[in-house]
Design a protein that fits this description.
Layout (H helix, E strand, L loop, with lengths): L2 E2 L2 H21 L5 E7 L3 H17 L2 E7 L5 H13 L5 E4 L9 H7 L11 H8 L8 H12 L8 E5 L6 H10 L3 E5 L6 H5 L4 E4 L17 E4 L3 E2 L5 E2 L4 H4 L5 E2 L7 H18 L1
Helix pairs in contact: 1-10, 2-10, 6-7, 6-10
This protein binds guanine.
Length: 280
């Protein structure tokens, strides 16, 4: 049977390390504060925002929660971001996505001070990652690198295939694997003969957003499989983009859903909040 990569345990260890770091900073009189903005009441977003606030409380980071009505205008949201940019007591600013359709997401992300961009979504953060300079890194792909490293999985020199090219996961994932000296291929909905490409992967990162799409025909014997998806299946059970029961027997290591990649996103957000103080 494969190694089950335990995201719950690894994220717990990271959060405990950060808790100690935050205590040390507090002893020096340094407090960390994260502002979290949610517009509207999308139920999934409310769960994510709740998890972020809980993690802040556990680690000792102050959180400011802004729950704005769905009809909030672009100007009102930009004004709030501007106000938080100017506040010396606010270290990190996170605008939960997706935003309501009448709001221009790109413009809101660009309005966040890059020194407070703990999501790593600002074009300056993405550019810094691309050219190997310091800056905030998108939390989910950064968490996947931690999962691999802390599970003793070598990246350097190995064939890494990423399925999905989103700005939040696929693209930064490819850049991070490249930074770790992997040989990286990015595939997407227009890739021809996807199975032929994914079967080359020593490390396969799946972020396509389609429940249980990846079966064993896509996976080389002994590959490491990382599943970013989260869905409910026909029995209302949580599942990923990978058909776990079908794939697990042929791979060397795999992330479960839930308890794999999911908990790492919040842990890396907390890591970025601690980093924000060091950057500022
Ligand atoms: N929506 C889904 N994932 C994320 C995330 O990592 N950050 C923000 N701000 N919104 C999201």
């Amino acid at each position: 049977m494969p190694q089950i990569i335990d995201g719950k345990a690894i994220s717990g260890a990271i959060k405990d390390e950060l808790k100690n770091k935050v205590e040390e900073l507090k002893a020096e009189g340094i407090h960390i504060c994260l502002a979290v903005i949610q517009v509207g009441s999308d139920p999934a977003s409310s769960v994510y925002v709740g998890n972020k606030k809980k993690a802040c409380a556990y680690i000792g980071i102050d959180s400011l929660a802004y729950e704005l009505p769905a009809e909030t205008t672009q100007e009102e949201l930009l004004a709030l971001v501007g106000e938080l940019n100017a506040r010396k007591d606010v270290n990190g600013i996170l605008v939960q996505l997706p935003l309501p359709k009448h709001i221009n997401e790109d413009e809101v992300i660009r309005a966040i001070d890059p020194r407070k961009d703990v999501d790593g979504f600002h074009p300056q953060s993405v550019g810094a990652l691309c050219i190997g300079q310091p800056g905030f890194v998108s939390c989910t792909p950064a968490g996947i690198i931690q999962l691999l490293k802390r599970s003793g999985i070598e990246i350097a020199g190995r064939e890494c295939v990423v399925i999905g090219r989103s700005n939040i996961v696929g693209k930064p994932m490819a850049l991070l694997l490249l930074r770790e000296n992997g040989t990286v291929t990015v595939t997407h909905s227009r890739t021809k003969d996807l199975k032929e490409v994914t079967r080359r992967a020593d490390i396969l990162v799946v972020a396509i957003g389609r429940p249980k799409m990846i079966t064993r025909e896509y996976v080389k014997e002994g590959a490491v499989v990382i599943d970013v998806g989260i869905h409910r299946d026909e029995n209302n059970k949580l599942c990923g983009d990978v058909d776990y029961d079908d794939v697990a027997p042929v791979c060397s290591a795999i992330t479960p859903v839930p308890g794999g990649v999911g908990p790492m996103t919040v842990a890396m957000l907390m890591y970025n909040c601690v980093e924000s103080v060091l950057l500022q």
